[in-house]
Amino acid sequence: MYHDRYVLEEGVWRIWDLTLDEPYITPVSWKDGVWAKAKDPVRRPAGEAGAGRAGGAGRGGNANVDIPLTALGKREEHFQGGTGEPTPWPAILPMWFDYTNPVSGRRPENFQENCTVCTLRPDLRLDRNGYQEAPDAPQANQSP
Predict the structure, then answer these.
(1) Mean pLDDT in the chain?
(2) Which end of the chain, N or C, is more open, meaning fewer C-beta atoms within 10 Å of its C-beta?
(3) In 3D, which of 94, 23, 20, 91 has the Cα closest to residue 57?
(4) Which residues partner with 108 through β-bridges?
(5) What pLDDT does residue 144 have?
(6) CB within 8 A of 3, min separation 6: which ones?
(7) How far, in Å, CA of 103 to CA of 85, rounded?
(8) CA distance linking residue 6 with residue 60, whole number of Å
């Protein structure tokens, strides 16, 4: 899931924030069309090479990121490259939202106020940089 933000400056849309929760699922058999037959991966004993990591996803490599997933704590718990033991597919990771339910206005269980990294870097909030936040539901979905 992407949590991207853009700003309009002098008629040009610019990227403000690119945040990605990756991956929610990593199917082990997608090429064979057998997603429904997938089994939980076998965990290696602690101390064994590669223990705790399924596949090569999420190792960071040479990625040049401003804020690593590990800095987001619980927000990235069990994601590949995040904190804690990775939870690979077919297990399901929690999905985070930075907006309320568009119909009821209810806050989801995993609600992230404002932007993903704003708890660590409040200076990145749109409103602290002269930009307006998009209206939240349900007010945003009402007819005039």
Answers:
(1) 73
(2) C
(3) 23
(4) none
(5) 56
(6) 17, 19, 20, 21, 96, 98, 112, 115, 116
(7) 35
(8) 25
* Tens-digit pLDDT profile for residues 108-128: 998 887 888 888 888 888 889
Provide the residue count of the chain: 144
- The burial of 122, by beta-carbon neighbours within 10 Å (0-12 exposed, 13-18 middle, 19 or more buried), is given as exposed
Neighbours of 51 (CB within 10 A): 11
pLDDT tier at 1 (50, 70, 90 boundaries)? low
Q: What is the pLDDT of residues 29-58, one digit of tens each?
A: 556 665 666 666 666 665 554 444 444 344
Residue 16 phi, psi dihedral angles, 5° rounding: -100, -40
| Proportion of the chain in helix, strand, coil states, percent, rounded to 5 | 15, 10, 70
